[in-house]
Amino acid sequence: MEAAFRELESGPIAPDATTHLLMLRGYAHAGMIYKMESTYELACKHAGKIDTVHIRAMLCAYCKFRHADRIKKIEELLQRLGPDDYKPWLNVLLIRVYAQEGLVEGMEQWIAEALERNIIVTTVQVMRSIITSYFKCDAVDRLAHFVRRAEESGWKLCRSLYHCKMVMYGKHHRLEEMHEVLDEMECFRFHRTKKTFWIMHKAYVSCGRRDEANTILAMMWKHGFGLPSRIFVR
C-alpha cells in the first residue's frame, strides 16, 4: 500500500482525498496507530471532513490495539458520530475497551445501552473482560447484578462468571451467598469442577472454618478430583 502511495507521489497523478482515506483505513485495520493518526491529519486537510466509515475504522483500531490516551481519543471520535450511526459491533468493542481500562462506570453505560437495544454479546472474551474489571475493583454486588441481567438477556454465559462471584463472596466471608451461586450454575448447566470446590475450600479456610473446609476436600475426593499434594486434612 505504501509503495503504491509513493508511486503516486512520484508520478503525474497526485494523491487526493480518497487516496488519504484509503491509507487511513489501511493503517487502522493494521493497527498502526501512529501512522493512522498522522494520515488522519492529512486526510482532514484534503477532505475537510472524515466520513463515518473511516471514523468507525479508527474507533475499531483504538479498541483493538492498546495505545496511550486511547479512551480520550475514542471519546473525541464518538462525538463525530450522529445518533443514527449506532452499530452493535462497535458497542460491544466499547464495552470491552472500557473494561480493559478498568473504567467500570463507562463500561456499565455501554452495557446498559447494549441491553436497551437488545444487543446480545456472544463472545466469552468480552464477558471475561467484564468479569476482570469488576474483580479488580472488588465490586461483587455490581458483578452479581450484571450476571442476572446477562442471564435474562441471553448473553454468552461462562463458568468464569460464577467462579468469580464465588471468589469475591468468599473474600468477603459471604458464604451463604457463595453457596447460592452453585444453584445458579446448576440452573445453567455448569457442572462443578475441581476449581469450584477449590474456591469453596479456600473461602472456608480464610474464615477459620476448618471442619467445613475438610468436608469440601472430601467432596472433591468423592467426585474423583483428588487432593492437591500440598493439602493436609486436620
UniProtKB/TrEMBL annotation:
Family membership noted in the UniProt record: Belongs to the PPR family. P subfamily.
Keyword Repeat included in the entry's annotation: yes
Species: Eleusine coracana subsp. coracana
Domain of life according to the entry: Eukaryota
InterPro entries xref list: PPR5-like, PPR_rpt, TPR-like_helical_dom_sf
Molecular functions (GO terms): mRNA binding
UniProt cross-references to PANTHER family, sorted A to Z: EXPRESSED PROTEIN (PTHR47874), OS05G0407900 PROTEIN (PTHR47874:SF1)
Designated name of the protein: Pentatricopeptide repeat-containing protein
Alphabetical keyword list: Repeat, Transit peptide
Record bears the keyword Repeat: yes
